[in-house]
């Protein structure tokens, strides 16, 4: 079992100078754990609660956007944990770590494929505006190739064709992590923006989002890659 170590320091990765310049750095006031290098997304519900002028209960759009932010934060925490742990995984534990990485990839794949195939078309149908969610889908393309390269390397390591190199895995994350994190953040205001179409027209949004979540929960990975804990703890069986 591997658990994230608060004492881990990114400086110990010893990347090249160009990698250090390109790699996102944690804000100085951010907790040093799984909250970097990619920042978590504040939920609209929490943001509203901090506004003294906001006294109304969260509406459907705030609730759905906040739920989406929480799903995205699960993916971000998982990616951060992989990023921080990769350079420090002993050879004896590399197999378990790789299974954890593949489980994280499964989570992201199920989430985004479900959006493209089901959730986004349903939103466009409710709004009566074809192509409304095209911007979100186009952002998927921005990190698709980098994510595919990452997955190919992890598969090669898991099959024994290559030996896990933590620094290489981190470099591959650098190739897609920025666009992925931006997309995960940008999608939240796009959900809030659906308010423009009115609550009556978008009345089915919350139910559709719940149904999509249920569908994703049953789209489970193979038994060899099932998580036994939330992302952030490397516990895989």
UniProtKB/TrEMBL annotation:
Domain named Hemerythrin-like: residues: 68-187
Superkingdom classification of source: Eukaryota
UniProt protein name: Hemerythrin-like domain-containing protein
Gene3D superfamilies found in the cross-reference section: nmb1532 protein domain like (1.20.120.520)
